[in-house]
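# nightly structure sweep
# worker-07 picked up a monomer target from the shared queue
# config: single-sequence mode, recycle default, output format = structure tokens
# input follows
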Amino acid sequence: MSQDNTIDYFLKTCWQTVANKYNIIASQFGFTQAAGYILINIHKEGTSVSQIANATGVKTTSLSRVLNNLETLGFIYREVNASDKRSVKVYLTPLGVEKRRLAKDVVRSFNEFLESQIPEAEREQLIQSLQKINALATSY
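# output follows
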């Protein structure tokens, strides 16, 4: 089996292409694909750092770096939980709310484009296959 003919090769190259496209678009708005994904996962009532990590699958060191960058850009702020000093919640600033809206718009637009190009039956089969691969990879 050749390396460029494996399921994981196609998964990786496909995701890399999508992530690169998102990065190109996000850079026009002053952030990255990873930052946009994190912004989308921060809720109005605040979101704990551990919830963001779980929702995004971003490793702690990378998440810390992105959160620091988002804070420097004025997109977020952090507050220590008064009842549990170990817990930190992340909140969006007004600028962060705007950037979050832009990130969501980009994701919606890109997905509308994909949906317009891939017939529904193919999309359903693709989603089922990806869910199956995810489950198999988890149990491997």
